Amino acid sequence: MKAAHQNDTYIQLSVALPVKAEEASSVAWAPHPTFKGVHLKHLITGADTDGRLSLHLVKIEPGCALAKHQHHHELEIHEVLQGKGKCQSGEQCADYVPGTLAVIPLGSPHEVAASEQGLLLKAIFTPALL
Fold first, then answer.
1. Residue 2 burial (CB count, 10 A)
2. Mode of pairing for the β-strands spanning 54-60 and 110-126
3. C-alpha to C-alpha distance for 37 and 31, rounded to whole angstroms
4. Could you tell me which residues come within 8 angstroms of residue 31 by beta carbon, excluding any fewer than 6 positions away?
5. CATH number at residue 56
6. Predicted pLDDT at 18
7. Range of the domain at 36
8. What is the pLDDT of residues 21-45, one digit of tens each?
9. Which of 9, 66, 114, 130 has its CA 20 to 30 A from that of 34?
10. 14-18, 78-82, 92-96, 115-119: which has the minimum mean pLDDT?
């Protein structure tokens, strides 16, 4: 995962909306404001969708986590793109491996922890998180 941080060629995503078009690799990673070892790419924001949806790439470094938190107003959908980890949502614990899709219900406390491989997710929020 460390090498992937330096080179975004593994991200084969493009954003194509009536108002904008760009390659995911052209969007800079931003450190998460709260969780150490977590970085974000905000690919689609509420400004692009009239507040209805946002889409983000979430990179969690090896051994790091999005510690327990909740979104009071947004439904969250995860798609695991790379790496491995676990997601604890309420009483449920799911293994996160490439291809895993998960829905985090509105208001559900949840935590996502990366394994020693790190973890790369696509996260969709409705309504938009940002």
1. 8
2. antiparallel
3. 8
4. 38, 39, 40
5. 2.60.120.10
6. 66
7. 1-6+28-75+83-96+107-117+126-130
8. 778 888 999 999 999 999 999 999 9
9. 9
10. 14-18
User: Secondary structure of 7-63 in the HEC alphabet?
Assistant: CHHHCCCEEEECCEEEEHHHCCCEECCCCCCEEEEEEECHHHHCCCCEEEEEEECCC
For residue 14, being part of any structural domain is answered with: no
| 52-100 pLDDT tens trace | 999 999 999 999 999 999 999 999 999 999 999 999 998 889 999 999 9
Residue 88 placed within a domain: yes
**Is 0.90 topped by the overall pTM?**
no
23 alpha-carbon distance from chain centroid: 17
Q: 64 lies in a domain? A: yes
Has residue 47 been placed in a domain? yes
